[in-house]
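Ticket reopened. Same input as before:
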Amino acid sequence: MVNRDQQSLEHKLALLKQTYQQNLQTELASLCSVLTRLQQTLRAQLMTPVGEVLDDEAQAPRETLTDVYRRLHKLAGSAGTFGFDTIGSQARILEGGLKRWLEESDQEIDLQLVNVVSGQLQSMQVELVPSLQQAPAIDAPQEVSGTTAKIWLIEEDDKLGKHIREQLTNFSYEVRLFTSVPEACQQIADESPDILIVDAMAGVGHLAPLQALSCPLLFISDCDSFDARMRAAQLSAQGYFLKPLNIPQLVNRLEQLLQERQSPPARILVVDDDQQLAAYYQLVLEAAGMEVRILDNPRHIIDQLTSFRPELLLMDVHMPDYDGPDLASVVRQYDEWSSLPIVFLSAEMDLGKQVDALSHGADDFLTKPILAAQLVASIRVRVARSRTLSALLNKDSLTGLLKHASIKSAAINEISRGYRQNYSVVVAMVDIDHFKSVNDTYGHATGDVVIASVATLLRQRLRQTDMIGRYGGEEFLVVLPHCSAEDGRKRLEDIREYFSRLRFNQGDQEFACTLSSGMVCSLDASDQDRDRLLVLADEALYRAKRGGRNQVCQ
Amino acid sequence: MSSLERILYVEDDPDIQTVAALALEVVGGFNVKVCSSGEQALEEAVAYAPDMILLDVMMPGMDGPSTLAALRKLPSLEKVPVAFMTAKVQPHEVDQLIALGAESVIAKPFDPMTLANQVRTLWEQACGKS
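Engineering reply: fixed in the latest deploy. New output:
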């Protein structure tokens, strides 16, 4: 009797679970489409010049998100009961973060927040119906020069504009030329640039729609006055270049800006016993483009550090089982983490406590409650500074490439990893031909421009995963993992060819340079040569030089 | 009041209504009356004369706390034990709900197999106290 009841109960529960699964699927799909509509609304608002009112039938973003929060709260409470534990806890985290966000009255609902929420909802959908997952983009082979930076140039003087375009195209940027701001504005619905260069004379007053693109803005101008520079600063320009333009200097700045934009998101590990607050920090930081993980159990901190490799640890001071400062001390016991920035967050008003926390190896102390914008700014600055420091330690100041020791050890590691995991690695030496005579004829400053151009070219035309270092004065070492001899050769030929087409200027004189390269593929090396790939590449470079230069030898 | 028999259950989510009613009726053997809103609960509570009341916290219209306040004003329901059911399980939020005069807080999501026992235990604790 009991047994039959039990069976019928299980049967009924299974049926309910089935119904619930269907409802859950519908609900998640509906939430996703609500978010998609909200994304569209916000995008449309960005495109509309200030003052113009959109036909606003849609709900205000805040109300929409409040409704999303309520629906997520419901899912957080119900999904687990029907056995969908993962979705339930994902909903709970998202719900908690969203709630805090909505409570912070200073928070404008911005597109980035909506993007983050939308992304998390989609991953819940995938969790429920794994077949929804689209083919991951990461599997697609990385194109060598798939990401040519798009530059928009707004210059009223057509002749000058064409001249600048030509020179920038030499550095393999894709340049679109406009003669007025409104002309460029018409294009923003279809595409957008990575960087915008505007002549200060070209009707700066109508820039608003272009500024909404949030791409870096550079000014070029004939006028070097305080007022003109101040106007540029007020428009948040990230550079001000005087005509006649010094192109290598401009390119240098462009590269810096592009690197900042392409730099991988900051990785932050959050440690807070208040789950909801942790979720809120996660949401705020992710909306600012960072990658965030929440530590679920303080005992796992070292494992999490090792697997996630955060660039900053954001930690609550008071936690029930272990105090924040003590946890920081544990982290500092490991040499590997001795320089990891640790930032404490706490409602602690007592100065003594703060000093105590700082003396336990913390780098900074932020007081709760903290405005979202302030949190993002503090963390961004910390991460940027720590990245700069590690770049100073490992990178060459002229080229921004790895220094001799760093690239050499990176090469050795990559070669042995390739042999261990059975993939092919190409190692190549690249050397500028007759560089000494460039220095002697045009001076060291011009020689530096040539070296920096090779570095720029290598960075632009190799993949993000490739390693590039300045091996000696005018000699570079590149390591291309997962690359066949044939592909490696193609890439190097491509770089050699491009470099020979660049024109350099010194005063009125124009000149060109060439480079030679020697390469070796790990699969072509005999067993006893496995430790000598660098030497083999060097020997190949020597053959290229002896064979007449401006060539790639294998 | 010798044993727990009649439970008034207030919850707006139909999926949760069904599974909770099933859990309380089949597993616990209780008599359950489901109301979909605080307003409906106020209309039906006196006539039903429950031994225990379970209240969802977040509901459109009257939420859990205001339903509790209104129920407590009805003389026959003044002393009936009430438990909130909620997905909020932050300790300070639980404390706030208890301070409103509830006996306890049942965390969502709940396990349908153990819900009935949990409710019975809460009810016995409440009666033992009074």
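The radius of gyration of chain B is 13 Å. Chain B has one domain: 6-129. Please confirm and we'll close it.
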